[in-house]
Amino acid sequence: MDQAFIEATKEPSTTFLMAKFDGILGLGFQEISVDNAAPLWYNIVNQSLVKEPIFSFWFNRDATEGVGGEVVFGGTDRRHYKGEHAYVPITQKGYWQFDMEDVLLGGQTTGFCSGGCSAIVDSGTSLIAGPTTVITQINQKIGADGVVNQQCKTVVTQYGEKIMDLLVNKEQPAKICSQIGLCAFDGSQGVSLQIKSVVDKRVEKLVTSSRDNMCAYCEMAVIWMQNQLKLNQSLEQMLDYLNELCERIPNPMGESAVDCDSLSSMPVISFNIGGRSFDLKPEQYILEVSTGDSKQCISGFQAIDVSQGPLWYATVPMIPCDTNATLQLLSSNVASHDCRILGDIFMGVYHTVFDYGKLQIGFAEAA
């Protein structure tokens, strides 16, 4: 096949210390390949080794079974999904990125995707990652305990009433935080007054000073208050709600714990994609971790903020190979290989098809 492999000489994340990897098989587009190396999938397609230029993922949510999941190159396995897939076009080659219309908590919009959001489906991420503004609202609804951030509460206390006045007076929301002196304004949105850092080739909003924090929390407060104004809440009610959200901001590692006995009271969380609602029930987005006789429940959502706008990681897919999963190559000679696919929240519920030929991605209920 004449496939080039790239050696990892440095593994900076603690993930590589805790997990057992034989390697990572990247299935993103060549646009983000290191040194522009041709990915394995490109060679498979170019050498006509598959019937169709698609691959698909199924994650087995039943931990008691021996097979952890399946990736099929060249087609799909009809045993692992129900009905038909709903497809959306890829909007940017690199990661498998597409547009998402909204995120809803118990059927109500979070208000953050009103202008549209970008999303990425990635089998290499165990949780669902999204903007801190929305993840904090989710944490509040499910009772997750994140880091109590006093700077967030300071913004609410000192500037909450001013933010409300500006919103009531129809001031452009994107300019509010710069008007009160907490952010600069780049012509389209508020930006931190401090330096931004480039980490792993992704431009991320890296909070490195109290000033950065104040700008970020102000932007969150504006969005939160916009939603509360629509509900005709009083100023006191709004400030109490915003302070409660401040208490739910995720910890620096992005994980938050919940009460295992409270699942029945948690809301359904929905993602509107391609005009269709993809629902996650509490038992699907809460991870139960058992150690001996003790049990802990972890929120399946973590916060990641990027400067280019709202971006969600529904989990380019990667396959860390180990054991107890199957890999199929649909061609005249079907080949299989033992490989563990790390499960993720969204893809565990929805069977996912990556259509390289038509540049689209499809979701169907997993079976």
TrEMBL record:
Disulfide bonds join 113-117. It holds the Pfam family SapB_2. InterPro entries: Aspartic_peptidase_A1, Aspartic_peptidase_AS, PEPTIDASE_A1, Peptidase_aspartic_dom_sf, SapB_1, SapB_2, Saposin-like, SaposinB_dom. One of its GO terms (molecular function) is aspartic-type endopeptidase activity. Keywords: Aspartyl protease, Disulfide bond, Glycoprotein, Hydrolase, Protease, Zymogen. GO terms for biological process: lipid metabolic process; proteolysis. Residues 147-187, 211-252 form the Saposin B-type domain. Residues 1-364 form the Peptidase A1 domain. Transmembrane segments: none annotated. It comes from the Eukaryota. Belongs to the peptidase A1 family. This is Uncharacterized protein. It comes from Zingiber officinale.
